[in-house]
Structure formats: C-alpha cells, structure tokens
Design goal:
Blueprint lengths: L19 E5 L6 E7 L2 E8 L8 H16 L14 E2 L8 E2 L5 E6 L13 H17 L18 H14 L9 H10 L5 H8 L5 E3 L8 E3 L5 E4 L6 E3 L1 H12 L17 H15 L5 H5 L1 H22 L22
Antiparallel strand pairs: 1-2, 2-3, 3-6, 4-6, 5-6, 7-10, 8-9
Helix pairs in contact: 2-6, 2-7, 3-9, 6-7, 6-9
C-alpha cells in the first residue's frame, strides 16, 4: 500500500489527528474505506478503479464540477440535497497518485442510513424519487457538453444490442445453447423498445446531466426515513432523465433484489412504482418535457431490458462465479458497470 492510512493529513488538506481506516463494502468498482476520528465517521477514502475509469483526470474533473454545482445550488423551499464533497490534496489536486500508479480520493462522509437500513415500502420509494429528482434539478443548469463522457455509450441501445449480436455469433464461452429462451426474449423485443433511443437521436427529448446509476443504494436517508443525500457520482455525465427514472424503477419497484436466484420472488410492485414516480415528478417540477413524462413508464422497460442484456452478454463471455452460476441463462452473478 503506497498511501499511509495513519498519515492521511500528510497528503490531504485535513486536520492533523489520529485516524482509523476500515474497508467497507459499497459497490463493485472502487475499493472503499471508512475513515473515523475520535469514534466519529468523517471521510470516505476510495482507491479508484482505473481499469474501469481509465482517464482519472476527466473523472475527477466531472466529480468536482458536479459536487461544487450541487453544493452551491439555490434550493427551492422544501428541497435540499447533501452530496459528498472532495477533499483537495496538499498539492491542490482532486486525487492522490501513488507510486504504484494507484489513485486515491478523499470525500466527506454523509451521516445517515443506506437503503439496507430502511424498510422497503412506498415511503422509501417516494423518498428515493424525491432524491433523484432533486439531483436532476440541481444539475439542470450545467451544459451537458461541459462533462466528459467517462463511459461512452453507457446506456446506448444500439451499442448494447450490437455487442449482443456479435457475441451471439462467436459464442466464446459455449453457453448459447443454455440461453435459448433468453435469446428469443431479447431478439423479439428489441424493435419495440426503440422509441426512447430514437427520440434521443432526433432531439425530441433532450440530453441532460444525469446520475446514470440510480439504485436506492445510492441514496442516503436520515434517521426519520426522509432522503438526505445522493452518492456515487462517478457515472454522472450526459444522458437522459429517462435512463435515471427507468433504472431506479428497475431496482426499487422489484419485490426482490436484482441478484435474487429464485425468480418466483421477482415481481413488479405497482405501488412502489407509483410512489417513486410521485416523488420524482414533485421534485423535478416543470423541468421535464411532456414527451419525457409520457415515456417514463416505457423507460422502466427499456432499462430493465438493457441491464438484462448486459448480464446476458456477460454470461456469454465471462467465467462465472461458481456460487452464482447455475447454468440457467443470464442469472450470471456479474455486476460490472461496463466492459
């Protein structure tokens, strides 16, 4: 390890005091550590995965712009959002580069509870909708062209489906015969889900600065269950509000977790959909166009399809985790953001 955890104050602009650092499990991309002092959580330290985020300068430029914009936003009455703020290094940089080409950043800790500590009910879904709608609103004054495309074609249907057809033809892992039902599902529904991509291509619906990873696990809740903050800003870049809404519904309106192996437990809960939608529309106000609002239900189908398509591609190309691989199609256990 080329960063002395006990002397973070030698690298970052923080008080010189004793710190304890403990690794925590959050997400699947970066290595994340909780930094405490005097028994109180104060910072989050992350070793950024430069295998995924290869241009660290562009990643952190985006992070800084988003963080500073939201911190300085004039929130309307009844709305507010806390986001992690960057701690600058002693050299004035947004990250520290180690001797072994590792990249580290330090951000403020947001005190609160994640979705695992709050009940999975309509109130939580409503608060999630408020949080992500408020996030979209707070970034609405940024020109999406001012952000780098950290993960190009991240939610591109054409890119995903093209990759699928290419992998299907080569079948590198020899699993095509195990996924015939899933393949039929994908190919039979592709054209019916092209309205949103086509509207984006034509300009009928706009590109915006969006989160792009709107799982409820990226919302921090207060002790009373109300939303407090949004985290995981690495994928914030140009995209569609429909990507954010649809991906949130895919994850929060499901009666089970997305990696639930017992598919009989996977059910769409209309009450959770209604609650999230209510919060999202309340917090975005008049920001969304009528066409975007009309396509909100469709976006849930699109994003569920595309994430499932990504997992199916992983099934054809990856060595599966033996704990999660059961030989049943796209129940792959893969959770990479991008490949």
């Amino acid at each position: 390890m080329d960063l002395d955890f006990k002397k973070l104050y030698d690298v970052f602009c923080i008080p010189s005091t004793d710190y304890s650092v403990e690794r925590v499990q959050h997400g699947h991309i970066n290595n994340t550590f909780l930094v405490t002092s005097g028994g109180r959580s104060v910072y989050i330290l992350q070793q950024v995965n430069t295998g995924i985020f290869s241009n660290i300068d562009q990643l952190m430029a985006n992070y800084r712009l988003v963080s500073e914009t939201l911190s300085g936003y004039k929130w309307p009455s009844g709305f507010h959002l806390t986001i992690p703020e960057l701690i600058i290094t002693k050299e004035g940089k947004t990250f520290y580069s180690g001797k072994s080409n590792t990249c580290w950043r330090l951000i403020t800790f947001i005190d609160g509870a994640d979705c695992s500590a709050v009940p999975r009910n309509t109130e939580t879904a409503y608060q999630g909708g408020l949080a992500f709608g408020t996030f979209l609103t707070g970034l609405s004054e940024i020109d999406h062209n001012s952000l780098h495309q950290i993960l190009p074609d991240f939610h591109s249907m054409n890119r995903r489906y093209g990759d699928f057809l290419s992998i299907l033809q080569s079948d590198p892992a020899g699993r095509k015969s195990l996924s015939e039902e899933e393949i039929r599902f994908v190919t039979s529904r592709h054209l019916s889900l092209m309205e949103i991509p086509d509207c984006l291509d034509s300009g009928e619906i706009p590109l915006r600065v969006v989160h792009n990873d709107t799982k409820l696990s990226n919302v921090i809740f207060s002790g009373d269950g109300t939303y407090k903050g949004v985290i995981d800003l690495d994928t914030v870049m140009a995209g569609s509000a429909l990507f954010d809404f649809g991906d949130a519904i895919r994850s929060c309106a499901n009666a089970a977790c997305e990696d639930e192996p017992d598919l009989t437990k996977v059910k769409f809960e209309i009450g959770l959909f209604d609650a999230f939608s209510k919060g999202y529309l309340e917090s975005t106000g008049s920001l969304l166009l009528k066409k975007e609002i009309d396509l909100l239900p469709e976006s849930a189908l699109l994003m569920t399809y595309m994430i499932g398509l990504r997992f199916l591609i992983n099934t054809f190309t990856r060595i599966m985790n033996p704990i999660t691989w059961s030989g049943q199609g796209c129940n792959s256990g893969c959770s990479d953001k991008w490949n």
